[in-house]
Amino acid sequence: MRAPADAAIDWRAPSAGALACLLAVAITNFGVGGALFGGRGWRAWQPFARGRSWRFTLAQAIGWTLASASLACVMACGTLVWRDARDARDDGTRERRLAVAALSWTSLGLSVASEAAVAASLAFFDVQDEGEAGRGAARGREGLDFRDVARVATLLSIAHVLHAPHAVIFATLATVYALGSSGALASIVVLYASTYFLQRDLERGRRKWDAFRAWSSRWIEGAAKAWHGSVRMIHDGAHGAGSTPLVFAYHPHSLIPAGAVWFHFLPQFGRRFENVKPVTLAASVLFKAPFVRELAAWLGVRSVSQEIFRSTLRHERAVVVCPGGQGEMCEHVGGLKEETITLCTKHRGFVRLAIEEKARLVPVVCFGESSSWRNLLRHPGRYLYRRFRVATPLLAVGYLGILPIPARVPLTFVVGDPMSLPEPDDAGRARESDVEIAHAAYYREVARLFAKHKGASGFPNLNLKLLHE
Fold first, then answer.
1. Who's near 27: CB < 8 A, 6+ residues apart?
2. This prediction's pTM
3. b/e for 244-270, b at 16 or more Cβ within 10 A?
4. Which of 154-163, 306-315, 417-426 has the least mean pLDDT?
């Protein structure tokens, strides 16, 4: 019996896409515990190591059993997809596709559960004592309460957000595959595309989720330290917020300046800038990226348009901007062997707006974030930007040099003193001469902070280049 028209669709392309996503899941999930806790005696697989507590052994056994079950579901999906691609008849086709969908979501759930179990085992893992490290001795800790387990599980769950999208994409593709109709995919795309009619709400911060922001504030420091090994803040100066609005200018823009979104969540920031809750302003393109735009909106990130810049500064009293913009992103070199950081200094709008809003400028220099990312398409991207002012193509990789998550490089945020700026004229406008003078003085201060603190931040040989084009 011949297959009906919808069963005759060639599913090899979506099947290949789903299996590719699946491969990414396996790569990024395996050994996450080792990546997060490496260098302190931890190894990804050691369920029966001598000296470990029974709680650690049990959690390890559960975690790796769940991981094995997740991979078994993946292999079963691959087998069913392969059989379906070979079978020209419709006998059993519908059942196989439904099985693929069910197994894909089961694989996702088991994968997340395995991460949580491994995280729980870390709460019972004892770091080697320095005096015993040479003999390889390690002791399991007993008597930990549930909060220890929950703390480590939460930290690893935050890291898992970076990995879960691959699994979600795989499960979604498998579901569309199971439905046996290309119209299903079109329906999903149309439904999600309809949310872009609410774009202005997202860009203006009207979708901020206070509970999500508060939760992120509590856990971001621990999660960042768990991944990067060290996250600290150096205050160059003692002045706090004062009574005037503040514009925090973040450098370098690099490939993905994620630190600009959360550095002000750190407790060290709040101790100096008490009751200051800056709003990060990002390029509008961020609010066009699926799923990423929702996360940004929940955290309160807004678009960096002039109107939103002014209104946010007036109402929230503090903003964070990345003056380098797309040009600086295209100049980014990155990588663990990075020798020079380039700052593009042509933009003066942030200085002009700060003068007109009677705000002070606060320079922020981040060491480590630039080195944690690398653009595999840097040269064509830089050429296209210089020629057509289009910041593409971009292909960000970090961990292991191939994965789209940042490499494990310690981060240091250097926060300078708020800089006073000239007064605007009688019409409330900034004088061009004042903008030029303040702009030059500002970048001299950025260069000073960079030179003064690069050694203490772990980058003594790193150079700074100011590009005035």
1. 403
2. 0.69
3. ebbbbbbbbbbbbbbbbbbbbbbebbe
4. 154-163
